[in-house]
Amino acid sequence: MWGNRFTKTIWDIYWVFTYQVLLRYKVMRFQFKSFIAFTLFAIGSNIYISPSAQAANFKTNFTPEKYNSQKDILLNSITQNQNTFDNFSLVQSAEILYNTPITGVQPGSSSIPGPGNNNTGSASTERGDNATFPVPVSGLNNPTNNEIVAFLSNRNLNNLLDTEDTGASKINLFFDSSIQQDNTGLDNLFFWERGMNSDLGVQAIDSTGKLLGNFLKLSRNEQKSAGYAIDTTEIGGSQQVGYWGVNLSQLGVDSLSGIQVIAKSKANGDLEDYNGPDYKVVARKTTRRVPEPGTVLGLGIIAGTIGLLRRRRLTGV
Ligand SMILES: [Ca+2]
Ligand SMILES: [Ca+2]
Ligand SMILES: [Ca+2]
Ligand SMILES: [Ca+2]
């Protein structure tokens, strides 16, 4: 956090300096050297002062408390650092960029355990065995963008995406509002993964799907128990669900419109096996943006400098 503010201030000063240099360039060329030096310093501060990226704990508050792993488990709120909040942005649209296709479907094939079980493909829509569902699960059909949205745009933690162990996928998920960094110290993105046995790649995207910031691998080893288990259609028993909390600083961005979620697989030519992540994700809605001290300081410097330059021009100094 401190690094962000410091960097912002450095950049504010940098722009003021640039403005001054451009004004004076013709008469004071020697300043160009210090301009270059300060440019390098500003770039350096941006590169070397990176915010800390430590995974934080949170508690999933759900209904009913005495849940049934095959039925609806509704996300009520999240508690983190003694703050409980329920203002979530949910997935509003999706774009499948890649999803290993389902193959070898024959009469009698099924996506559920038992004879004829077909485990090909990658991400599919999934639900608890007796959970409600917005549309039927994709099963042995490749899922559509709209089906993915249907399963991720509600608070039912027993509506999710299931990825086959050797499947690979790359899907853009857009939230219903822009997610901004703020100074609450709370995470911005909250993921749950069935089985606590898979990894998930994440990167921020803008409203056009353009990649922003840095790629982040959420590791199965960093998952903590979310306090419930689910038994869904493609598995024969209940599995514990784990969670990850992600702050925008871990993704190297101040805001995002969505995320690209990535499952890697050696069968797809990737260097790693993510072991088919089975996940749900929500974002914390940004309700207010409080100016950070660094920004206020930086804006003050800009205003002061512009005022000074104006006065100098007026008085002919
Ligand atoms: Ca499947
Ligand atoms: Ca899993
Ligand atoms: Ca089942
Ligand atoms: Ca899986």
Write the layout of secondary structure elements.
Elements: H1 2-24, H2 31-48, E1 59-63, E2 74-80, E3 83-85, E4 88-89, E5 91-99, E6 123-127, H3 145-152, E7 159-163, E8 169-180, E9 189-194, E10 200-205, E11 216-218, E12 224-230, E13 239-246, E14 255-263, E15 279-284, H4 293-315
Antiparallel strand pairs: 1-2, 2-3, 4-15, 5-8, 6-7, 8-14, 9-13, 9-15, 10-11, 10-14, 12-13
Helix pairs in contact: 1-2, 1-4
Bound molecules: calcium ion (4 copies).
One calcium ion (CA) binds at residues 111, 121, 124, 162, 164, 234.
Q: Number of helical runs?
A: 4
- Count structural domains: 2
The hetero compounds bound to this protein are:
calcium ion
End-to-end separation in angstroms reads: 41 Å
Helix content: 10-25%
Helical/strand content category: alpha+beta
Record the strand order, biggest sheet: 4-15-9-13-12
Number of beta strands: 15
Outline the low-pLDDT stretches.
42-54
Radius of gyration: 24 Å
Assess the beta-strand content as a share of residues.
25-35%
Order of helices and strands: HHEEEEEEHEEEEEEEEEH
Largest sheet: 5 strands, antiparallel
Give the mean pLDDT.
86
Shape: globular
